[in-house]
Amino acid sequence: MADVVSAERANVVNEGVVKDAESQSKSTLSSSSTAVTGRASALGDGKTRHSLGNDPAGLRGSAKVAGWDGIAPAPGSVAYSNGKASNETIADESGVGRPSAKSGKPSPTTAGIFKIGAVDAGAGAAVDELDDTPEFEGIGSAYDKSLSAKRVASRIRRARASKSAGAHEASASSAASKAKKAKKAAAAKEAVGKSQAAAQAGTAEAAAAPAGRAASAAGKAASTATVGTATASAAAPVAGVIAGVLAFVIGVLLVSQMVSALFGFWENEAMKDTGQLTGIEAEIAAALKGYGFSDEATAAILGNLKAESGMDPASDSNMDGQFNYAYERACGIFQYTSTSPGTGEYWAFKRWCSANGKTWSTVEAQMEWTFSGNCEGTWSSRWGTALARSGYYSNCPGYTDGAYYEAGGFKEADDVVKATYSWMACYERPANGQYAHLDRRIEYAREYLDKLTSPAASYSGSNKIVAAAHSQLGVPYVWGGSTPGVGLDCSGLTQYCYAQAGMSIAHYTETQYEQLTVAPLSQAQPGDILYKPGYVAIFIGDDQYIHEPQTGDVCKISTGIGYFSCALRYTG
Question: Does domain 262-269+457-569 have CATH number 3.90.1720.10?
Fold first, then answer.
């Protein structure tokens, strides 16, 4: 029976009615492959857009996902999963991704997922057709079971991996926790040790403190120390800058005091050569002698200045139409003149003072302009002899023979009358006749020469305060100075003078005001202190006072007590 069946079967196969098992299997697989190819083509023709899982927002009906047009996506392209962009790298044509930044495992990509799906679909179709043949009946059930087993095995592996990762994380957390506990235990132990050490050293309070409190205190101390160190580090440069600035300021003060002392010394020596002259006349005479003028030339200039301005450095006269000019201005002790608006020495001098930060109404500025040789107003450059030669001043009272000095010989003049006429006729050049007042000029010059060449008057009165003040004439002004004969400031002078009379007063001006009794200027007596806020002097009578004026100046006699507010008197 078996032989009959086999022979019949062979005939049927040979006739092509049915196929043998091998041919049937090949036919089935070929058909399945065609079906798979068709599915893949439908997915990869670029016309149908699908998302993996949910449709990603913004992709529906718009942009393509890389690789959906059948071209392998470039490495580094972004794949979408469940509507979200994934940061896992796109794979090559094998369908296997590069390791994920999160899991470290290869992850399927869009192209990979489609390729795997296509293979699974083809295999399932082939198994279904084989299952329909008698030779492979039941293979579909076996295939389904194998897929189920494969899925179960995959889930088990994932579960194990997750459990392993959790165990690893728990282990790491446990290790960190143990390390923390060990650190705390060590800190507590150290704190206990410090408490014991404090107890041994006799610090009962520290020894009695709990270890926890001691550890906390230690932590706070460390924190404070750190903050203190940081603050000190930040403050160090600032402190250095401040120290540098202070050193610079102190250095400038010291240098200024040294310069003041040196100039004061030289001026003191010059003041000793001014004889009995006092006040502004002594100041001008000292400056002239410092510039190298002889006694006769100095006296001649002083006589002319007194006739011209009355020795008022702040004189500023409007003489329009009074003499020969419709417009005429004159200022200062030298009466710098202008006969046209904006021109002449009057305006040139004031512009120079303004440009150089000087006060035009001071003796110092006017002496510098006239005698320093560094300014437009240098006396020798303005010396002219034409009027003197012409006899223009022959009608002036006091005129003699008309003799005069050239500029080069005037500084060494030895004839006070000739020198006085020369300064008037060659430098001042006033209107002639009685308006020139040559006779007055000569009279004043002779008086100044007598004072200039006489020994300085010493105070012979019984007032010890006034005598002490006279003894310091010519001593340089030094800010804060309290050394007689070397350097004094205004209140240092008054303190010294009162000390010589056995009266103890403070050094500072405002303190002296508080210590002494206030009296009006009209009742001031020699020896009283003349006061105005921030400044004091010694009253010596006849509207005069001795004082230390300012840096660069010396102790001297000045006139005009109206400069002060009141008098101060020691009443015990």
Answer: yes
